[in-house]
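Review form for a predicted model. The reviewer records the input and the model, then writes brief findings.
Reviewer: anonymous (R2)
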Amino acid sequence: MKSSRRDKLTSLLLVGPLLLFILVFFALPLSAMIGQSFADRSVVAVLPLTAEAVAGWDGASSPTAHMEQALMADLTAGREAQAVGEMIRRLNSIQPRFRSLITKTIAALDQQAPAGHSLHEIDPRWSQLPYWQAIAATASPWTDRNILAALDLRREGGSIRSMSQAESANRAIFARTFAISGLVTLSCLIIGVPFAMIAARTQGWRRTLLLGAVLLPLWTSLLVRTAAWFIILQDKGIVNQLLQALHVTQAPLGLLFERTGVVIAMTHVLLPFMVLPVYNVVKAIPVTLMPAAASLGANPPRAFLRVLLPLSMRGILSGAILVFMTSIGYYITPALIGGPRDQMISSIIAFYATGAANWPMAGALSIVLLAVTLALYAAFVRLSPKGLGA
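Model under review:
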């Protein structure tokens, strides 16, 4: 009994650092990102009294005097200019002309005491319901606006509708991301599977040379590899010069800033993730199976399709899912090699995070990408349990 407890304690101590690492550097940031994606305190931070006053309002009747007094009290209270600006941008995104209305109201309230005055005397627009409905819609500190926007959706009058193509294109970018990832996975399958099988069946220095050619990219910086492809694929690069020297083409091919260049560069970067799982599986397959199949009358193609390929499927599927999941989140290679129509969702997330400083939107896009990825992985595992089994 004591020995069993000691073994469990030892196992826990060995796994403890890994669990702590996952908790600190994955679980906590992920939970913070999820919370920030659903949080929206831009309005309630400036209009706390108004948020309480509109909580029981039905949205159809005229605004009450209590709501007007609460709004005037909030607008006359000292607030940071940045917070007021964020509130105005949020409200103006729902109801146009809110910026001028808030600015005019604050200026009027600074010149006179709010007591004994009504908002519609300052501006007749305060008697219109859409402006109060916008405040009521944003008064909650929680919202699904960012998640809906990540899917090119929005709420209008209580219903969810699709945005126009001019307003957002996130769904098209998600589709492009999965299309490029699928092409890269297919390229790695075509190149990596035969290469891994050949490497697993060779011996001595030949195997060392083949594995070294695969492992060398892993030992090189991703930025260096991408910059090298930038030089190789340009109009006067090695590829175009070789094609023209062999009279395959008369003019340089457009490989740089095109989808073809992105797929080539990403295939080179991710090829080891396909080769190594297939190599490990094929290496464990007895070499006598193919001669045994030949002795039973199977020709080499039939023996490969009926014997070697099914036994190698676990490594092939593992490599495919590894390459696909890794390529979904690629950023540097498409950004340097691809053009505007080749940017993947990671570039959009980076723009919202660093360029626009819109962390809630960046987090919402990341959550959607994570959810879709997990759904695809779950479907993959369900449809191929034998391929990923032990």
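Findings: The chain has a mean pLDDT of 85.
Further findings: The radius of gyration is 30 Å.
Recommendation: see findings above.
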